[in-house]
Amino acid sequence: KIRSLAEIWRVLRPGGQAAILDVDIPYSLFGKLCAWSGYWLFHQDEIAENIRGRLREALEASPWRGRWQIASRHSGYLSLFTMVKPQENTP
Fold first, then answer.
1. Helix or strand or coil: residue 28?
2. With left for phi above 0 and alpha for psi between -120 and 50, is residue 16 left, alpha or beta?
3. Is the per-residue pLDDT at 91 higher than 70?
4. Which of 9, 29, 40 is nearest to 76 (CA)?
5. Which residues have C-beta within 8 Å of that of residue 46, sequence separation ≥ 6?
6. Distance (Å, whole) CA 9 – CA 63
7. What is the pTM of this model?
8. Domains of the chain: which residue ranges?
9. What is the Cα gyration radius of the chain?
10. What is the pLDDT at residue 88?
């Protein structure tokens, strides 16, 4: 996740925007049910990692540290993360 986020940072021009819609820490009972059911059905470790907050940790460990926000949340477990690269090309 960190390498992917670093690559997005590298290829995005200064002032450019990026968005990620992904499973996030569930914030409702319905969200917990959906998120964990998805993990159980698809057996994808990435889903469990995101439910536990790994995507947020990766954002903070990448060049995007302090430059991301949650623009919207959906269905109790999905979050739209948005990032804007500063005009100057600083890490």
1. coil
2. beta
3. no
4. 29
5. none
6. 7
7. 0.89
8. 2-84
9. 14
10. 80
Q: Residue 89, CB half-sphere, CA atoms under 13 Å: how many?
A: 6
* pLDDT mean over 24-45: 97
Start-to-end Cα distance in the chain: 17
User: Can you tell me the distance from the alpha carbon of 13 to that of 4, in angstroms, rounded to the nearest whole number?
Assistant: 16
pLDDT at 48 over 90: yes
Average pLDDT (49-78) is 97
Complete DSSP assignment for 29-65? HHHHHHHHHHHHHH--HHHHHHHTTHHHHHHHHSTTT
| Cβ pair 16, 84 in contact under 8 A | yes
Using the predicted structure, report yes or no on whether residue 69 has a pLDDT greater than 80: yes
Distance CA 31, CA 25 (A): 9
